[in-house]
Amino acid sequence: MSIGFSDRVAIITGAGNGLGRSHALALAERGAKVVVNDLGGARDGTGASPAAAEEVVEKIKALGGEAFSHSADVANFEEVQDMVAETQAKWGRVDILINNAGILRDKSFSNMDLADFRLVIDVHLMGSVNCTKAVWNIMRAQNYGRIVMTTSASGMYGNFGQTNYGAAKMAVLGFMNTLALEGGKNNIHVNALAPTAGTRMTEDILPAQIIGLMTQESVSVGVLLLCDEDAPTRTILCAGAGGYATASMFETDGIFLSKADQNPENIRNQWQSLSDTSKNKALLTGGKQTEKFVMKAMANMQS
Question: Of these residues, 144, 157, 165, 244, which one is catalytic?
Fold first, then answer.
């Protein structure tokens, strides 16, 4: 069965350029009504212009779709609320939110100004928080919602010179994990996209021949899946250059030390057993880790 979005309303942040633009066009092509959000700043977050977002809107309308632009700064909750209120007034609902807006201010940590660190956190993390907060109760009331966070391999695995960006991109995964639990009863699915694509965010990082393989459209087909009625929830979908995978966090089974043996030397001596990955498990809530260790302690008491 084909994936379609007729009568669905989608808000995409940072949709004037790059991946956000590609996501907006892909959703509109399949029938979604689209809010094209973009402050219109440069890659580092400076400046503002409505031109890029308006161009995307005109392209969607030329293809027979419905769209409007809004220049809310995602780091400003009042501006985000205004965007959502305008969406509600025009179309009466919000079904899909793609938190895509982002900036880069790369430097090694020793040379990074804390103001640059905070700004990247504000846009990527708090921008996702603000937009999600603004639509959350709407989605709960209509008993339907699909939310996509944008994470990154830089957050999951690290990337030199991107402590601010990496911290923000890992933080949205923690945000996703809990939202998926809280939204489940109201049919709100929350996922994350880990994209790799040729955009202005990567144009001076990757060689031109590599960027040519990493089309934005190849990533957007993945985001369409995450916005579908039958989308998974609490999933990290990695996408780039036509490759697709999921990423997960696992925990080793670990060891148990009796009270008399609980010292750092014994942890070091049993490090190989503690780190053994043969019994890895993905834990579904924070309490599952506590449960695991308590069960180990109880089993030892009974032995």
Answer: 165
**Do residue 223 and residue 278 come from a single domain?**
no
CA angle (235, 162, 250) in 5-degree steps:
35
Q: Which domain holds residue 34?
A: 9-247
Write out pLDDT tens, residues 125-177: 999 999 999 999 999 999 999 999 999 999 999 999 999 999 999 999 999 99
CATH (domain of 205): 3.40.50.720
* H or E stretch at 111: none
Angle separating helix axes 216-227 and 18-29, nearest 10 degrees: 60
Are 111 and 236 within one domain? yes
**What is the number of H-type helices and E-type strands within the chain?**
12, 8
Count of the separate structural domains present in the chain: 2
Quick one: tokens of 245? 């995978």
pLDDT digits (tens, 9 = 90+) for 98-132: 999 999 999 999 999 999 999 999 999 999 999 99
Q: Do residues 175 and 149 make contact, with C-beta atoms less than 8 angstroms apart?
A: yes
Q: Are 216 and 239 in contact (CB under 8 A)?
A: no
What H or E segment, with its residue span, contains residue 34? strand 33-37
User: Is residue 232 included in any domain, yes or no?
Assistant: yes
Q: Please tell me the least confidently modeled range out of 9-18, 41-50, 253-262.
A: 41-50
Catalytic residue list contains 165? yes
